């Protein structure tokens, strides 16, 4: 029992620093007679370490009885698009590469062992933030992934 408690505590701690998403909308893809329909959900989250970068992620959400009870495993399909929404100031941690490959978003996509993650990289040569979304699993991850790049552009005032 103690090992299970420690495992779930570790899972909870792993998601503390990642951003929380707001649901923007969803569309039904398959009608289910019992339980919620299968859907594609669109969510938005702000990068917790970079002010004025917002990412939009779309992902499959399994419905039916298992989906309604939170027992279904969602597919690894997801798409991501990130944009600059205001002036960006990068911290020294990001510029110096100490935040290389930082997880900025996580979402559980099965009861315990699978999650969707977004990782941020900084491309110093091109002055661009790169966001990679992928799904991982304790035993067997998926090579399905999506990428979005945000060039850091000076944000001037409109005259």
Automatic annotation (TrEMBL):
The lineage of its organism: Bacteria, Pseudomonadati, Pseudomonadota, Gammaproteobacteria, Enterobacterales. NCBIfam families: PRK10756.1 (NF008026). Coiled coil: none annotated. InterPro entries: Uncharacterised_CreA. This is Protein CreA. It comes from Serratia symbiotica SCt-VLC. Pfam families: CreA. GO terms for cellular component: cytosol.
